[in-house]
């Protein structure tokens, strides 16, 4: 990381409670993966600094993961972390291939269609099982469009811009 550049932390989950009596935490992981792929996680301290916790063990549960964190040895300590967002440094994320994107990079992008003057903003992404869906706001109106190159002409991460194919907005009844 270049000198003076602040490390970027990305929220990847949330601690939703304690698990058992030995200090395990229950993690709601913001991914479809059944395991947490990192050996550590970070929690934000009240002053805004990030504190590192090593992960020594994990067990998949229904909808969550039970994690054993270094330095957390009791149920009370684990419960005190409940409600906290879990972060990972951006540089821990795997490099994406061409036409692969992290949602965190897409959300907030300006969305345009070549024949329209009205830009929109990509507000959220939704996992639907088949094709992910983009929630885009155009002039106060929300529209759902599949995240598919059937509807997308170009994505520029550098310009934070997503270009829809000609006619996409008309098809989805955006006037």
Would you state the CATH class of the largest domain? Answer: Mainly Beta
- The strand order across the widest sheet is 1-2-5-4-3-6
How many domain regions?
2
Can you give the mean pLDDT? 90
Helix content: under 10%
Oligomer: single chain
The count of β-strands is 12
Q: Outline, from the CA principal axes? A: elongated
Indicate the proportion of strand residues.
Answer: 35-45%
* Distance between the first and last residues' Cα: 45 Å
Could you state the CATH homologous superfamily of the largest domain? RimM
CATH architecture of the largest domain, by name, is Beta Barrel
Low-confidence stretches: none
Order of helices and strands: EEEEEHEHEEEEEEH
The biggest sheet amounts to: 6 strands, antiparallel, barrel
CATH topology (fold) name of the largest domain: Elongation Factor Tu (Ef-tu), domain 3
Q: Helix/strand/pairing class, anyone? A: mainly beta
Radius of gyration: 20 Å
Q: DSSP helix count?
A: 3
